[in-house]
Amino acid sequence: MIAKTYSDDEYYTSEETAISFFEKVVLPSGILSHKTILMPFTVEGTPLHDVGKRYHDNIVSFDGNKSMWQAVERYEDVAVIDNPPFSLSAEIERTYIDKKIPFILFRSAVSYPKFILRADRAGVVYENSKAGVEFNWGFASHISDDEHIKQHYPNLLDMLSHHGILRKKVPVGFSFNLVDYNFKIKSVTFDTITYPNKKDVYIYLNHGVFDERSDLYISEKDGRVHATSH
């Protein structure tokens, strides 16, 4: 089973991953104490939505309006839990932080925006799976399902895949705001998860275990956020 959002990016969330996400990231955060949980990018009946309903009885899912996430104030005592398009991650996070909306959102862990670091009670949970997180790389999303290429260049995709050109592995994360966590960055481990290709790179986090003792700072040399795993 997979869950797809309305966006042009393909986001895959299996039931197994959704369960791990709620057990290891959502439940410890205390965010489910809010009266309304908004999922403005998730379609009703998909794994992320169905698993969410096991933990909360007032889940509001995507209603067909692509600007639904911006109208968050219409809901009473609302918090947002979702898997948004990577191309919108920073914009969504900044908007919700400015509006003081609690959230937990899937995001690439190769980026850690400075505005999240500087915001109170905001940070990133880092998924530390040994298998890594696979996503389509560069032009792969344009050619993988292209019928012309499949018919006229049947060996091209296999050759590109063999040389590691089509898919890459990166860490995945979950940004949060106004939850019960008392840390800025921490690690959890899932079994497997597949993630999309769009990202807004501020920092690359090498595989490691990040917790309350991790050093997190903005470098004066390059202006980026740096994290050191102990």
Account of the 3D structure:
The chain is of the alpha/beta class and 230 residues long. The chain has a domain at 1-108: Rossmann fold. 23% of the residues lie in helices and 22% in strands. It has seven helices and eleven strands. A seven-stranded mixed beta sheet has the order 2-1-3-4-8-5-9, with helices on both faces. The chain has a two-stranded antiparallel sheet with strand order 6-7. The chain has a two-stranded antiparallel ribbon with strand order 10-11. α1 crosses α2 (47-55). It is globular, with a radius of gyration of 18 Å. The model is unreliable at 1-12 and 194-202 (pLDDT under 50).
Please tally the helical runs, counting DSSP H or I stretches of 4 or more residues: 7
Main sheet properties: 7 strands, mixed
Q: What is the CATH third-level topology name of the domain at 1-108?
A: Rossmann fold
Query: Nearest-angstrom radius of gyration?
Result: 18 Å
Order of helices and strands: HEHEEHEHEEHHHEEEEE
CATH class of the domain at 1-108: Alpha Beta
Spatial ordering of strands, largest sheet: 2-1-3-4-8-5-9
Topology readout:
Blueprint: H1 15-26, E1 36-39, H2 47-55, E2 59-61, E3 78-82, H3 89-98, E4 103-108, H4 114-118, E5 122-127, E6 133-136, H5 140-143, H6 147-152, H7 156-162, E7 167-170, E8 172-177, E9 185-188, E10 215-218, E11 225-228
Parallel strand pairs: 1-2, 1-3, 3-4, 5-9
Antiparallel strand pairs: 4-8, 5-8, 6-7, 10-11
Helix pairs in contact: 1-2
